[in-house]
Design goal:
With about 160 residues, the protein is α+β, with helices and mostly antiparallel strands. It has one domain: Roll (Bacterial Protein-export protein SecB). Helix content is about 30%, strand content about 40%. The chain has a four-stranded antiparallel beta sheet with strand order 1-4-3-2.
Length: about 160
């Protein structure tokens, strides 16, 4: 009797793929005493780069503004190379959409905090994120869109 094929998941490399820090209103912006409004945008993605080898990434764009003036803009892409084998497509989607972002996020948070501090500002500490909930939300949106497309037939007849 042959043994079932075991799934494989290993981290080959974690790295900062891209980092940008902009302080468009320096040096005057350092004289501002008002607390900035901080906006965070996060995107994630993944792609196959070899046989059983994938790159997953998270990109954070952090913008701090005082009124209409941009205090700073930090954009970081934290990436990783992962070996993932012997998984079905549904499991692969979950690993790339939930597992890999969960591994990358603490590193992304550290780079954002360090970048803000090195730029001369108070540390920006990103709150923990639930990538499983975000993944499930995205799945539900896709299902709803597919259902809506299936309900409305060409010519407007349902």
């Amino acid at each position: 009797m042959s043994e079932p094929i075991q799934p494989v998941f290993t981290i080959d490399k974690l790295y900062v793929k891209d980092l940008s820090v902009e302080i468009p209103n320096a040096p005057q912006i350092f004289l501002e005493r008002e607390q900035p409004k901080v906006d965070l945008q996060i995107q994630n993605g993944a792609g196959q780069i070899g046989d059983g080898v994938y790159e997953a990434f998270l990109t954070a764009t952090v913008t701090a503004k005082v009124g209409e003036k941009t205090m700073f803009l930090i954009e970081v892409t934290q990436a990783g190379i992962f070996q993932i084998r012997n998984l079905g497509q549904e499991d692969m989607d979950v690993v790339l959409g939930v597992g890999c972002p969960n591994i990358l996020y603490p590193y992304l948070r550290e780079v954002v905090t360090d970048s803000a501090t090195r730029a001369g500002f108070m540390p920006v500490v990103l709150a923990p994120m639930n990538f499983e909930a975000l993944y499930m939300q995205r799945q539900q949106q896709q299902q709803q869109e597919q259902q809506q497309q299936g309900i409305i037939a060409p010519g407007g007849n349902a």
